[in-house]
Amino acid sequence: MKLLVTGGLGFIGTNFIIHILNNYQDHSIVNIDAELIGSNHKSLSNFENSNNYKFVKGNITDRVLMEKLINECDAIINFAAESHVDRSILNAKPFIDSNIIGVFTILEILKNQKKRLVHISTDEVFGSLETDSADENYRFNPSSPYSASKASSELLINSYVATHDIDAVITRCTNNYGPQQFLEKLIPKAIILAVHNIPVPVYNGGKGIRDWIFVDDHCNAIMKVLHKGKKGESYNISASNEIDVLTIIKQILSIMNKDISNYELSEDRPGHDFRYSLDSSKIRKELNWSPKVSFEEGLKTTVEWYLKNQEWWKDIADIKTLNSIQWKS
Ligand SMILES: NC(=O)c1ccc[n+]([C@@H]2O[C@H](COP(=O)([O-])OP(=O)(O)OC[C@H]3O[C@@H](n4cnc5c(N)ncnc54)[C@H](O)[C@@H]3O)[C@@H](O)[C@H]2O)c1
Question: Which domains does the chain have, with CATH numbers?
Answer without folding.
Answer: 2-176+212-237 (3.40.50.720), 182-210+241-276+293-327 (3.90.25.10)
